[in-house]
Amino acid sequence: MADSFTTPAAGPCLAVTMNSPDLDAARHFLAANARILELRRFEHLFADGDHAPIRDAVAAYRNPDGGFGNRLEPDCPCPGSHPMAIDFALRTLHEADVWDLELVDGACRWLEEHAPAEGGAVFPGPFAAGWAPYAPWYTPEEGGPASLLSTASIAGTLHARGVVHPWLVRATDLVWSLVDARITTDPEEVCPAVRFLDHVPDRERATETVARLGSHLFQHGMVTLDPGAPGRVHTPLDYAPFPGSCCRVLFEPSVVEAHLDHLAGTQRDDGGWPIDFPAASPVAELAWRGHFTVEALQILRANGRV
To answer: Residues with Cβ < 8 Å from 269, sequence gap 6 or more?
Structure first.
């Protein structure tokens, strides 16, 4: 399948030099600049730290209604619960293997109670109102429709854990209908849709969808093969960060290796990784840098670079 979708390697920019990240520098960056959540994640993943404190750190962002908020998702400063904070919480619990049924049940209950008519979850623009500064893409959509971005990402994590819940049943049907009706040309929606495809139980349907998605990505310029491309771009590692990612078959191994080398090489002198999008505030920028520092190290380790 890779030969059907990939474009030829683009000259010397795809050379692999096998950069290695500096874990000690990353730890110092996180300790000095990041949230306690990201520091605990790093300590668990890379310094033999206990994973239980990660559960406690996530729980600190929980609200009495069972949802999550309180700037857990750095782009939205509102204290109230909203879908993207729930997505952030569930993904963190899954990653650290501290899947807590009490926290998960509360989050699913919140999602069910606040689902739009068609099911799923809205993009959290309405929840951000009155809590500036928030990211400009949090502007509410008229009518509050279900969002492929938030619905697919949350559903993917719940499927990864084998959760059974009425919200997930409707959300899964909704994601399939949105993907089948139109494969979006917005990479910010495709990336969580791919996470859904990684974990949804219907593997035959997921494989068929990935085959359609491959040509779509290249046809609409939604993936950048040049590791050094500037600005806000989406690379093979956004769609297939791990060897087991279902979209990994869309990219030649040499292209993936080049992007891994570039990722390792973008660690800054302060030990952290940069972000390639404008943050809502200086506080949000540091929170995102802490998050993506841990994410970068996870991807590099999963691919044999740490």
So the answer is: none
d(CA 147, CA 141): 10
Question: Which residues does 288 contact at the CB level (< 8 Å), separation at least 6?
Answer: 74, 75, 275, 279
Question: 137: which DSSP letter?
Answer: G
Residues 185-219: b if buried by 16+ CB within 10 A, e if exposed: eebebbbbbbbbbbbbeeeeebeebbeebbebbee
For the chain, domain boundaries: 2-302
CB 146 within 8 A of CB 176: no
Amino acid at 257: E
2-302 CATH, one of 1.10.10, 1.50.10, 1.20.140, 3.30.420: 1.50.10
* Length of the chain, in residues: 306
CA 220 → CA 56, 215, 251, 252, distances in Å? 42, 9, 16, 19
How many helices and strands, by DSSP H and E, does the chain display? 14, 0
The tokens for 15 are 């050379």
Q: Looking at the whole model, is its pTM more than 0.70?
A: yes
Cα–Cα distance for residue pair 262/266, rounded to 1 Å: 6
Q: Which two tokens stand for residue 78?
A: 């509102």
Q: Are 30 and 49 within 8 A, CB to CB?
A: no
pLDDT tens-digit profile of 88-139?
A: 999 999 999 999 999 999 999 999 999 999 999 998 878 877 787 777 777 7
Gap between the Cα atoms of 118 and 13, Å rounded = 45
| Buried b or exposed e, range 145-168, using 16+ CB within 10 angstroms | ebbbbbbbbbbbbbbbeebebebb
Summarised one tens digit per residue, pLDDT across range 158-193 is 999 999 999 999 999 999 999 988 667 788 889 999
